[in-house]
Amino acid sequence: MPATIAPSPVMDTPSPGPDEAPEYQLDVPSFAPVATCLPSVSAPGTKTWRWGDVTIVTPEGSGVHVGGILGPQAQPVMAIFSETDTSERILIDAFSGQLVSAGPDDDPVFEKQKEIGAALATVSICPIDPSTAPWPYAGPSPNGPRRTLGKISFLQPDPASGVQWTFEIDDPGGMFLLLQTARSEVAIDAETGAVSQETARIHADDKVAFDRYIATIQIVEK
130 near 161, Cβ under 8 Å? Predict the structure, then answer.
């Protein structure tokens, strides 16, 4: 049965702070973000990733993965990393596309430089358009597949939407599904499906998308 979950609260988050000075040890392939809006639907054989205003395109099977990093005080960044060694990664600002850092700091050999360099060559800056962005912003929800965490079942967002999920375990408190964009975050109790109103940070531009996503969460019996 679908979970009965209260809509998410709206809370404007602060604008991104000034760019931090790059702090990196490795030779990073040169790249220059361009102000180009790519189609929100990935072309055949490719995958489009979004975090904040930044998009990147990778070929299917490239061995490169992209994800967002969001913290209460941290600068939102996009991480481009190797699927086989997550320490080999480059962090770029989620709004300017500029380099923030690169790693691993303790290894002078950047084994995935070629693959990650190819991804960096596609960096584009394009603010999201909620009216044309993939679900949960616009369009119907996918039929599946569903993932399960605790007693809740949820859908995998399209990486081109800029929405991602992760989880955390609090002691006390239990396990929570975290729904995130570069501007917003909400925690959903993995046992009850309840939204944590105390910790939610929802930007007004993400409000409808978060509510549409939350409405598809289901409680499952184990």
Answer: no
Q: 10 Å Cβ neighbour count for 198? A: 7
Per-block mean pLDDT, blocks of 10 residues, the chain (222 long): 42 45 55 77 87 93 89 80 79 90 60 80 91 93 91 94 92 88 94 90 93 95 68
Annotated domain spans of the chain: 23-125, 146-219
Residue 118 has a pLDDT of: 86
Q: Which residues contact 151 (CB under 8 A, 6 or more apart)?
A: 190, 191, 192, 193, 219, 220, 221, 222
Task: For residue 222, give the amino acid letter.
Answer: K
| Strands 152-155 and 99-103, bridge-based pairing | unpaired
pTM for this entry: 0.82
Rounded Cα distance between 12 and 222, Å, is 37
Candidates 47, 2, 8; CA nearest to 146 is: 2
